[in-house]
């Protein structure tokens, strides 16, 4: 019998990195509510998380709306009695060049990535303050500092998430609420095609995994990270540390 100690909400928790975060936290004994707007993905996630069904809930909710954000956060408090971790992971990631960017997809990206992060945090703060503290972990991206053509909405939204993190850390710190942001590089969570070259721009020589992200979320939620807040943490195998693979002879 797993001893439930802490509780969490993971947005976008029915697929991809979010699902792995849910599985990882549940395996560690946390009670977890996963909120995702994709009903089919929620049904699949419920099946795949059956081993943890006594302390995992999966609900359909659009966290980019005030009602959806409250449904996720208040649902976890109603089910588990408290909220120790909010992981804002849900995101939209369109690929569009600025010149022809649809205003609808621009706004949708900000609605999910930025509004959703703010609305879920807003819903979580009173619960965390009343219980004497908590941890909010926002999933940003290295695209928030190192963009790519076609990623204007996504990159700008992730830069916003990083600055939102710092601002909320300033506001919530006195209530014992820590707020941090993880900025992953390339994370492979779908089946590899098998024909992919070893990435030469990543010093560690591989893409990240969803488990790499989940371990860091778990650490940031733990007492071991008790003095960390306002941190924007790169998790990219060294991809943005500098130029990889410059030979000694050619180096300046
Ligand atoms: N995969 C990568 O390489 C990578 C790299 C850097 C950062 N990230 C970040 O990691 C996080 C997860 O990425 P992923 O690759 O697993 O994405 P994904 O698209 O595979 O999964 C995102 C999940 O969020 C859900 N979602 C989207 N909008 C929602 C909404 N309004 N309400 C509720 N749920 C919603 C989707 O249904 C989906 O299940 C995102 O924040 C992403 O920006 C991913």
Can you walk through the features of this model?
- The chain is an alpha/beta fold.
- The chain has one domain: 3-Layer(aba) Sandwich (Rossmann fold).
- It contains 6 helices and 9 strands.
- It has helices at 16-27, 39-48, 66-80, 103-130, 152-172, 210-221, and strands spanning 7-11, 31-36, 56-60, 85-88, 134-139, 177-184, 187-188, 208-209, 232-235.
- Helix 1 (16-27) links the parallel strand 1 (7-11) and strand 2.
- The mean pLDDT is 95.
- It binds nicotinamide-adenine-dinucleotide (NAD).
- Residues 11-12, 14-18, 35-38, 41, 62-64, 89-93, 112, 116, 139, 141, 184, 186-187, 189 line the site of nicotinamide-adenine-dinucleotide (NAD).
- Count all strands and give the number: 9
Give the names of the bound compounds. nicotinamide-adenine-dinucleotide
Query: Globular, elongated, flat, extended or rod-shaped: what is the shape?
Result: globular
CATH superfamily: NAD(P)-binding Rossmann-like Domain
- For the record, give the distance between the C-alpha atoms at the N and C termini, rounded to a whole number: 59 Å
CATH topology call: Rossmann fold
Helix-strand sequence? EHEHEHEHEHEEEHE
Main β-sheet, in a few words? Answer: 7 strands, parallel
**What number of structural domains do the residues give?**
1
Portion of residues within helices: 25-40%
Tally of separate helices: 6
Which class do the helix and strand fractions yield? alpha/beta
Determine and state the CATH class: Alpha Beta
Q: From the alpha-carbon coordinates, what is the Rg to the nearest angstrom?
A: 18 Å
- Gross CATH architecture: 3-Layer(aba) Sandwich
User: Uncertain spans, ≥5 residues at pLDDT below 50?
Assistant: none
